[in-house]
Amino acid sequence: MQRRRTIRGSMTALAIALVMAVSAGPAQARSLPTIVLVHGAFADTASWDGVAGLLRERGYRVVTPDNPLRGPAHDAAAVQRTVDSITGPVVLVGHSYGGSVISNLRDPKVESLVYIAAFAPVEGEVAQAALDPIRFPGSQLLPPALQVKFVDDATGIAGRNIDGYVAPDSFHSVFAQDVDPVTAADMAVRQRSIALVANVQPSGPPSWSTTPSWYLVSAADRVIPPASQRFMAARMGATTSEVDASHASLVSRPGEVAGVIEAAVPD
Fold it and tell me: What average pLDDT does the segment 203-209 reach?
């Protein structure tokens, strides 16, 4: 009788322990972060479609906010409104000029930053410094490939501003030489122009100085020279890798880009 009571007591204790373990499991499991993908100049949210699709297939919630391309502080505030709408942790990703934007966004929900062929300025630095032809020769983003136009812009003087864009007949060779011609032509039509002043506005204290960061260098980039990208990645102490791709690596090599973003997700 005593033995049966002992066995019954042990089984009851085991059952309670199992119930507690099962009920505690989901509460202790870490939810996946929301991944926020910020496009750069001469692009739009559609440039992230391939990467976003791969990440969603892997179970991530992905958000691609519109980047106004008016200036680092202004644009960071716009992306901040998207981050404010998200519950839970965030991985923030910036391509090209989008790197300047995420560098100027500081939010405790952002657990890691990912730079894809992107500007990563220090405090007081302007994006144009990364294109310094003396230190970092090789950028082909020069006239006549780079064109300007007047645009209506509430942030500009008297509601107008001067924007830069890539000439359609140069877009493929300068911005996306490893993208098929049909896709590159569509990208050229969809491109968003950037206020010229955005590239000469000083950056604020960089978020990457206090947030774990990753950098994917485009080794065949004709917009931001690879040497400049490597310099910025080393300066920020980022976990760095390279892909043999154009400036538009997010379009031509979405698998590699998605892989770097997933590597930045905290355990």
Answer: 98
